[in-house]
Amino acid sequence: MFEIKPQNTGRRASIQPKLKIGQPGDKYEQEADAVADRVMQVAQTESLQMQPEEEEEEMMQPKLRMQPEEEEEPIQMKCAKCEKEEEMLQRKSNEMGVATSSVEQQILSSTGKGNKLPDPVNQFMSRAIGADFSRVKIHTDTNAVQMNRQLNARAFTYGADVYFNGGEYRPNSSTGKNLLAHELTHVVQQKGKRGNRISRAVSTHSSCPPNVAGAPAQPLTVIENANNRAVLMALGTAELLAFESLLFNDPTFGPSSVFNAYHSRFGDPPPHNHKFRNRFTHHDFSTLAEAQASEMMTLSDRFRAISRFLERQIKFRCTGNSHTTIGNCTHHCRPNDVLASCASGHGNTIAICSAFFTSGYSTDQQAIGMIHEVLHMTRHFGDHASASTASQRGREPECYASLVADIYGATPFDPSCPPV
Length: 420
Fold this sequence. Notes:
Residues 117-193 form the eCIS core domain. The protein has helices at residues 27-45, 86-95, 101-110, 119-129, 142-151, 174-193, 219-247, 257-266, 288-310, 355-358, 363-379, 390-394, 397-408, and strands at 2-6, 19-21, 75-79, 137-139, 153-158, 161-164, 271-272, 275-277, 284-285, 315-318, 323-326, 329-332, 339-340, 349-352.
């Protein structure tokens, strides 16, 4: 599995940047595999009424107009060989780190010209993954097959266009549905990564001088990488919680590590009048399982909103140990502080403390810290020294951040939401 993306060259009218092929097994491929597996579990619990597999080519719909993108998209592909040959494929990906000019031109000339997903497939995948795929274009023509053969791929994704090798587009079969879900996850990922993120999600009014107060030579690049990762982690958590709410109480599947992470950080919904209450919406349910499912769906919605917020132009200010004013708040970074924001006003500024750069935190940990701050900024939550009650956990930003950390295997650096 590979990712192909444009090199960061200047855009000129007559020169197209080369499309780079990424590595198999990277974090985006792992996330796509995980989402595809969960989609297959959803598929087993929902009976889709679709045409027989041999008729699926007839289900292709007329072309759908889509505005051309102004910036190059990454391309991600699913390897044609099986997982047993992953080491060989890793070497092959190293050898073909840049797409050939012929493949590049075929891709650029064909984007937006495929067929849309059949309505039943689109409805299921949109519901299962939690995204709108009405603008996705599917390519199964001779050019798509030839490009996949050149790239040694079963399928690859470029923006909202998915290209399949011969016989691989089979949305009614289990293997075909799994592959399609994998590629559609890349569509969601690339929507989050599209374009020059630092000019869009990191405001041009951000202030972070290089080599000052612990900042590296290119501090905005570090911040951008963490912000990009936070977008994907919040969205991935939203999708997984939505899946889990459907499956955790099914006797065929049972609770997964996603449910365990939710329960570890939030505990059970509180009892109320001989029922169980969704602490976020204050709706009551007859059974504990119903309330848990409702809470996971509410959390899914909140994480999806967090992901969208992180795509805004956020103003980052590297303050070091100086006093600074953010909206209605005056802040001073203490030795162990990593980030800060104001819960009572000015909802698009995050202060970056020196420890963000100097404490050796991974990009995932930095991203989790940003998710924590977004809860202050958007829901005006305060902090608890150690959240313990159901109500405190529901309003503690670190419980949300630590839930993401648990799902992605990262270590939270804030102890204010200990496991139940």
